[in-house]
Structure formats: structure tokens, C-alpha cells
Amino acid sequence: MELPDLNDGILYTASLKNDDAETWRHLIRIQYPVLCRYAEKMLKNPAAAEDLTTEVFVKLWQKRAEFNDLLQIKSYLYTCIRNGCLNLIRGKQREESRNQAFADIHLQTDQHSDLELIHIELLAAIRKELDAFSPRMREIFILAYFKRMPNEEIALKLNLSNQTVRNQKALGLSLLRKKLKPKYPLRHISILLLA
Asked: 48 lies in which domain range?
């Protein structure tokens, strides 16, 4: 059977509506590569472009009865390819955005967990070093830095002068920093004790 003339779009479309296999093969042979290139330029992904173009031809087959001329078919094909590409691009952007948000949350959680772990280890190291302090210095240190009592209250509670409390706190802090500095940054010690 001879193919209908492409210039006679109505006859060509009628042949497609009548499921003429040769006309369908001809349409696909002519339009498929062009549509693939069009999709590939938008998607930058040859495999995705081919998949989309195949899907569009399947949709055309399912709607073949709705078209009356070749210009409508070509317009439908290009519109479907363009819209399909835009949907894929938007879907990829949404996925990348979700992945980035998940990565950010995961990174923040990891950083928070790491910092928390450092603080727990540091607190244990501080408690261990406090055992080497004199009983009076240890008591002042615990009241000041762990119970957050002001110097005046500590002085009143322990029947000491404010200056003695300040001196004991400063000496205790200095001893701790010397002992812990090789393993822990001073800022971590300060953050934990002075926050």
C-alpha cells in the first residue's frame, strides 16, 4: 500500500485513524528523532528524552481519533514533549531540593550530635579533674559552674569572703584548662562552664 502524501494532512491523518501500520511507522520514523532531539536539548539526558518521546507516541496512539489533520498531530506532539520536559525538570528540581534539605538536616543533626558527644566527654573529664582539687576548691567550683550560684551566695553559704571565692574559681579554672587543653579546645571548656 502506498503512503498518503504528507502534504495532504487530512488524508494522512485519516490513514493514521484507520490504524494503517505503514503510515504509523512513517510518522514515527520522521517525527521520533526530531522530537527526541527537542526533548534532549531541554533535558540534557538522552535516555530520558527517548523515554518521554516514546510515552508521547503512546498517548498519540490512544488519542488518534481526536485529530483531523497532520498539523494538529504535530502540534500535539511538540506540546506534549515540551510539557513533559518541563514536568521532568520541575520534578528533578523538587527532588534535588528535598535531597538538599534532608542533607542539611542530617548534617545539622550530625554536628549537633558530635558537639553533644564532645560536651559529654568534656564534662566527664572535668569531673575527673575535680577529684584532684582540694575539697574547698572543688565545692566552690561545683557551686559556681554546675549549680550556677553567684559569688556572693557561695561566700555566704561557705562563710568565705567574695575575694576568696573569686580566687578559688580562677585557680580552679586555670588548673582545669592546663589539664584539659591538650585534648579539648579552650572554647569548648569555656562554652561548657560559662554558658
From this structure: 9-95
Cut 0.70: pTM above it = no
pLDDT bracket for residue 8 (50, 70, 90): low
The Cα–Cα gap between 58 and 141 comes to: 78
Tell how far CA 90 is from the center of its chain.
16
Tens digit of each residue's pLDDT (9 = 90 or more) over 49-98: 999 999 999 999 999 989 888 889 999 999 999 999 999 999 888 888 77
Q: How far is CA 121 from CA 1, 7, 125, in A?
A: 85, 82, 6
Q: At which residue does the C-alpha cell 531540593 appear?
A: 97
CATH code (residue 24): 1.10.1740
Looking at the 3D structure of the chain, how many domains does it have?
2
